[in-house]
Amino acid sequence: MSDGERTFVMVKPDGVQRGLIGEIVSRLEGRGLTMAGAKFTQMDDDLAAEHYAEHEDKAFFDDLTDFITSGPVFATVWEGQDATRQVRQMMGATDPAEAAPGTIRGDFGLDLGRNVVHGSDHEDPGANEREIALFFDDDELVGWEQIDEDWLYE
Ligand code: DAT
Ligand code: MG
Hints:
The protein is an alpha+beta fold. The chain contains 8 helices and 4 strands; from the N terminus they run E-H-H-E-H-H-E-H-H-E-H-H. It has one domain (5-146): Nucleoside diphosphate kinase-like domain (Alpha-Beta Plaits).
């Protein structure tokens, strides 16, 4: 059995526009993570400011919130063993130019301000729960057991 950890993953407006939703979902599914929630939506300024509150003093904050509200996003919750850290590894470095090939950002991005995907920071305790709660009510999340659990976890 997994530890049941949940993490927040969002395909950003550039990823949506470039048709990468399916690719990103496929990678997470293939890894063995289980989707617990999904929402196709466009963020408003308030949600963007809350979601990126840790960056509000940074010079890039206005560009970041303008970008993240510029089009629809695909907001998702994924569950699995050590899910937050594992997703961050699959996403790669924040700057796609530095992200290793084989990671999502390393395979699909070139520019820091267009890095395709967001995932909760595993080095920021509680970030996953906080971000999930910003986007989802409890009754919008589904806990379920995938039939291959016995073959994914020892
Ligand atoms: P991550 O998205 O990997 O968690 P972060 O939380 O440090 O990275 O930053 C949030 C987003 O802000 C990031 O995905 C891209 C943008 N960003 C980060 N640092 C930046 C910078 N120095 N200049 C412009 N945009 C930046
Ligand atoms: Mg971050």
